[in-house]
Specification:
The protein has 191 residues and is of the alpha/beta class. It has a single domain, classed as 2-Layer Sandwich (Nucleotidyltransferase, domain 5), CATH 3.30.420. The protein is built from eight helices and five strands, in the order ββαβααββααααα. The protein has a five-stranded mixed sheet with strand order 3-2-1-4-5. Helix 1 crosses helix 5 and helix 2 crosses helix 3. The longest helix has 24 residues. 42% of the residues are buried.
């Protein structure tokens, strides 16, 4: 049997929120140091994600984060901004992978051997690891934004369009971290 390929798992967090960057992670796991409990980040408690993220950063052969900012999301659209964040994560890896497995049904057009796997964050350990790192990073960022803008509740809803977030926008206005190309922000800005 041939030598193991270097496989990077890639996933993103933050396509649906009304605020903040979209964050992607790329992870190349070390087969000699398995990590128990990897799963889709949405199915894990915040505490479990934090514990696993620390273990991933410690044991992975390589990991990195990439992001696309609110301005890029508004300029490109969320899909292209997501692909840009994925590309940035991959290009930042200390070791370049031979194969890239991406959670979802589409791959960015970049120069890697890639495969999209629907539900990959629950099926492929490297994608699960990327899902966890991306979520822990983005959640921490939204907690920091909550300190800057306490009236909006970012620590609770992480920028998603919850009733409390929508009420805060109506009461206090649109912030620079809000995605102006997303509804209902687009409507509120154009008034």
């Amino acid at each position: 049997m041939s030598q193991c390929k270097l496989i990077a798992g890639v996933d993103e967090v933050g396509r649906g929120p009304l605020a903040g960057a979209v964050v992607a992670a790329a992870v190349i796991l070390d087969p000699a140091q398995p990590i128990m409990g990897l799963a889709d980040s949405k199915k894990l408690s915040a505490k479990k994600r934090e514990t696993l993220a620390a273990e991933i950063r410690l044991k992975a052969l390589a990991w990195s984060l990439g992001r696309a900012e609110v301005e890029e999301i508004d300029q490109l659209n969320i899909l292209q901004a997501t692909f840009l964040a994925m590309q940035r994560a991959l290009e930042s890896l200390a070791i370049q992978p031979e194969q890239v497995l991406i959670d979802g049904n589409r791959c960015p057009r970049i120069n890697y051997s890639m495969e999209a796997i629907v539900g990959g964050d629950a099926l492929v350990p490297a994608i699960s690891a990327a899902s966890i790192l991306a979520k822990v990073s983005r959640d921490a960022e939204l907690v920091r934004l909550d300190q800057l803008y306490p009236a909006y509740g970012f620590a609770q809803h992480k920028g998603y369009p919850t009733p409390s977030h929508l009420n805060a926008i109506r009461q206090h206005g649109v912030l620079p971290i809000h995605r102006r190309s997303f509804q209902p922000i687009k409507t509120l800005v154009s008034r």
